[in-house]
Amino acid sequence: MVERNLVNVLLLGGGFMLIFTSFQTLGNIEQTIIDSIKKDLPSFSGDGYTSLAIIYAALSLSNWVTPSVLSAIGPRLAMTIGAITYCLFMASFFVPHVVLLYGCSVVLGAGAALIWTGQGMYLSQCSTGDTISRNSGIFWAMLQMSMFFGNLLVFFTFQGKTHIDETTRSVVFAVLIAVAIVGLVLLTCLRRPASNGDSPVELSRDVRPREAFLSAIRLFRTPRMILLSITFVYTGLSLSFFSGVYGSAIGFTNAIGTSAKQYVGLNGVFIGVGEVLGGVAFGLLGTRTTTRWGRDPIVITGGVLHLVAYFLVYLNLPNSAPFGNTDALSYIQPPSALIAMGCSFLLGLGDACFNTQCYSMLGGVFKSQPAEAFSIFKFTQSVAAAASFVYSSYCGLHVQLLILVILGIVGTVTFCLVEFAVKRERPTLERDYEK
């Protein structure tokens, strides 16, 4: 039984690792790629930030119906359908057209809601109160290994290039789509979770779609979920910053040198190093730390790491860096590629602190409503990410960093308030989970 569920978690992590090797790499370089497409094809008017904003807006809206969809088709089929939409989105870059780009962005947003809510529900079904931190850590570490492979491909393929030509773009797209298809195949191999007496394997399948929707609304209105939603909003803002804005800002800063575009890929690698290290340290080993000290020290650590990273980014990169190639300078002259990569690592490590503990909180405290809880998580996170990509087109780097600092502090505090409440209930509540 335990072995079967662990194999399921490994397959789940492997499938997501491959799919997001492709998508996270593409998200990291999308604005840089589109900037090069516009030079080759002046009639193309697409925008990378707008595309990402559409994806997250569609994802946020779709999250309200995904509990109903999952109650009808289950998490495994939902994840398969979602994975297909990722492949379609990446294929759209072979035919640069603004309507196709934005249309596929909408489709991907809906598919992302299915794959992520299905993932949260399935992971919860494969876990108990004793194994949720371990399984969350395994999944998170495997998922974030996706940051290595695709971005290493970009690092070597973009080497010495100030303009990404059509041949180079086609090679990158072809490799990324092939990798995503292999990930899709792995997700189709997922087996039904073994019943373990603690995991409600078929609970949500017994709930009618309308009741699943109403249940999500009721859960969203609870004081505990309202507080957590502020933390989720911050994770969405930070996600959009390090996955879309920060890498582009590095590539657009001409003072870094002719290797600036190359560092866009290396930035993703260092984010991945931080994410995997955090997944191992705070996820795989998290059962001991959360039992003894709780989840709040880990989230506080993540908040501090992000604040340090934002301060260094402020000193290192110019305010106009997110908008396009710039010769402007910031306080550190010339900008340091070493500091830029160090900030990438800190952003990844801090993000792992937040996300592993959010997964642990949702999979443990909201065990009886996994689809609803993870839908709310992805909804609030996606609304924030969509808003971030919208204002990223208009606000300079300094304003973006100020927003992140404020929400980072508030989000850390609200998570800790919920965790303190859970600790007070632990003598009765968590004992029930561990039986």
From TrEMBL:
Listed CDD domains: MFS_MFSD11
Annotated TM spans: 7-26, 46-65, 77-94, 100-117, 138-158, 170-190, 225-246, 266-286, 298-317, 400-422
Alphabetical UniProt keywords: Glycoprotein, Membrane, Transmembrane, Transmembrane helix
Gene3D superfamilies (alphabetical): MFS general substrate transporter like domains (1.20.1250.20)
Membrane topology: Multi-pass membrane protein
Chief location category: membrane
GO cellular component, one term: membrane
Record flagged with keyword Glycoprotein: yes
Cited Pfam families: UNC-93
Entry's localization field: Membrane
Similarity field: Belongs to the unc-93 family.
Protein name: UNC93-like protein MFSD11
Organism of derivation: Anopheles dirus
Lineage, broadest ranks: Eukaryota, Metazoa, Ecdysozoa, Arthropoda, Hexapoda
